[in-house]
Amino acid sequence: MDKPPLALDPNFSGGSEDFPALLRRKGLLQNAPEITGASGGPSFVPTESTTILAFKFSGGVLVAGDRRATAGNTVVYDRADKVLEIDRHSIMAIAGVPATAWEMARVLEHSFQYFRRTQLQEMSVDGKVRALSKLLRDNFGFVMQGVGVVVPIFATYDSNSKPEARLYFYDAMGAQFEVTDYAATGSGSPAVRGILYYENTWGSKKLHDLNEEEAVAIALRALDTAAEADTATGGVDRTGKIFPLIKIVFRDGIVTLPEEKVARIFNDKVA
Amino acid sequence: MIEEPYRWVEAIANRREYVETQLAQGSPIAAVGYRDGILFLTIGRRSRQKIYEIYDRIAMGAIGHPGDIERLRLAAIELASTEGFTRSASDVSLRRLAHYSLSPVMKAAFEQVYGPPYLARLLFAEVGSSPKEDLFLRIDYDGSLTADGPVAQPRQRFAVLTGTNSSAELMEKFLQQNHVTDAALPDAIAVAADGWSVGRMGLGENAIKEMPDRDAIRKHRDEQLADSGVEAAVLERDAKSAIRYRTLSEEELHPHLQR
Known about the structure:
- The structure holds two protein chains of two kinds.
- Chain A has helices at residues 19-25, 98-119, 125-138, 140-144, 189-202, 212-229, 259-270; strands at 47-49, 52-56, 61-65, 69-71, 74-77, 83-87, 90-96, 150-157, 165-170, 176-178, 182-185, 245-250, 253-256.
- Chain A is an alpha+beta fold.
- Chain A has a single domain, classed as Glutamine Phosphoribosylpyrophosphate, subunit 1, domain 1, CATH 3.60.20.
- In chain A, the strands form three sheets. Chain A has a five-stranded antiparallel β-sheet with strand order 11-2-3-12-13, with helices on one face. A five-stranded antiparallel β-sheet of chain A has the order 6-7-8-9-10. In chain A, strands 1-4-5 form a three-stranded antiparallel β-sheet, with no helix packed on it.
- In chain A, strand 12 and strand 13 (253-256) form a beta hairpin.
- In chain B, 41% of the residues lie in helices and 22% in strands.
- Chain B has helices spanning 5-23, 66-86, 94-111, 165-178, 185-201, 214-227, 250-253; strands spanning 29-34, 37-44, 51-55, 58-64, 120-126, 135-139, 145-148, 158-161, 229-236, 245-248.
- In chain B, helix 4 runs antiparallel to helix 5 and helix 5 (185-201) packs across helix 6.
- Chain B is globular, with a radius of gyration of 18 Å.
């Protein structure tokens, strides 16, 4: 790889290098090998996790995910966290292979901090959105081998832009799509998209106008509906008392809803 | 000619003198422990930042040549970030960063007389989970280390960085007399600013030799504040987020510097 132009000393990096490039230089991060020709399909079944959704409501952006991780027909784990905080105002939610996704989240989190610390300014929202896109693109070799597909949602709050709440979803190749109202990815997402579309178009209130409690109720209903038909989605485990993980990006930071609160809203408005 | 040992010693001595002269005008930085963490403070031209975030619990203050400071700062951030990424944030330690990486590199650069030395003096602090675990650490241009914290018997919960030895001694003496370990942040800000003034008065052509009295310190501080900016940052022990570093704005600082 070419040395960045600012690297004056082989011991030290220049200011222009981004964090993934630094990791590659140190041999700590590898791009997925690109395979040409027909792929024979995976020889093992990777662990995957689904379903995630996000939408804007009156207070900010709500991001929710069920807790199930599966490998083929087997439920591997029922308390997986698919909604991850990247920095004070950014959340990445993941559908797909958690091994790849958690690593991506880690790289991303460190990238933003590395940029702020070295460059002495916060990375712009566009820069952050692009950074995730680039990680997905670098991972595409694994996707083609059928073992590392990740389809994330990225939600952030930017007080310098209009609208202030920003919401994106991605495809497995790294294309980012900014949405105005809602996004859902993962195997249970068709049902979720149906519900969110219905609520936003014909519901008693548009998603934008919901208060926090109403927003949480709709998120729970949507995930429960997705779980009804999709075995890979956990929904709400009524006997095990496992509830979806819900985080909200507000103007002044991220709040993880405590389980008791989610449970209460579930019992009041969903169950 | 430098192959001869005494020539080498002479070259090093010359180099030491040169670097000391270059650093002699460096405006002081005070790092003081307070009830809820560690405060870094300096007063000076607003044009150049002197206090930096290195990692979640580590901050750095520096004087010297901007280019050298920048290279060392980037190296420190790079080392801490890769360690934090491959292992975990709690495996990043200032002690290791300084002892195994920065100090040897700075020593080597200083003693290889054909290459340029680092014209920089660095002050680091790492906030621990209790005051006893706080670490203050200074690395000089020749790689020598001075530490106060869990590695040795801690003597004091503050550290200073300034252009000359005599200025540093005055500053340390002032802080020994006036610094209170469990003070609240406003009091820590006032003490650090006074400490800065003492250090500043000990620099330059009209450098003081004896500890000035309280009125002289206050007068000097107010004069300096009138046409300079205050730069300060804290490492907060119990901050909710993993990142403990926070820059203090001038609005936040000024009320505490009027007294």
